[in-house]
Write a structure and sequence with these properties.
about 190 residues, about 30% helix, Rossmann fold, alpha/beta, about 35% strand, globular
Length: about 190
Amino acid sequence: MACRIRHVRALSAPLCAVLLAGCASTVVSLTPSPQAPVCERSATALVLWAPEWRPEQKDVAQREAAAAKGLQDFFGSSGCFAQAALRRMQSLGATAVSAQRAAEAGRFDRVVVIAVRELGPVVKLLSSAALVEGGTEVQLHVSILSVPGGAPPRAFTVHWRNGGPGVLRGVASLPADMQAALVAALQPGEAVR
């Protein structure tokens, strides 16, 4: 019996190495698509955000901290807007957004509302020849409101996934994943100067 256990352990290390050495790819979908860039480097923006987790969401505090860090890092370094003020809201209902917008009237060119609906690692067992398929996923609902008399409001959803067969991730990459999803959604690389 001891021989069999050692033999299984000897096979486990190479199998684990194969499972963990997967190749990741990124898939982004915008609905509706295509979307014009949200970023405008000469504009100022009030960014209101809140999580809208599903009822059975696990590790809410960790995910919310990762979302906050990703948002702060993105708006602090992307050059998306000339100035962006980030505000965490308890709710993104129409009444709450209108009240915040009225309180900040005249200070910003637009209001960007971001609902974080998914942010986390994904693992599927036995879903492919590699036995494990995983990665991370971010899903955001973005609404853009201009000052009165400006462009009409618009809204869209971004679903960002990075992973593949043999890929396993934890929560450490979530702030960077949040930033990557924001780049795909708001398109700072195409921002108007």
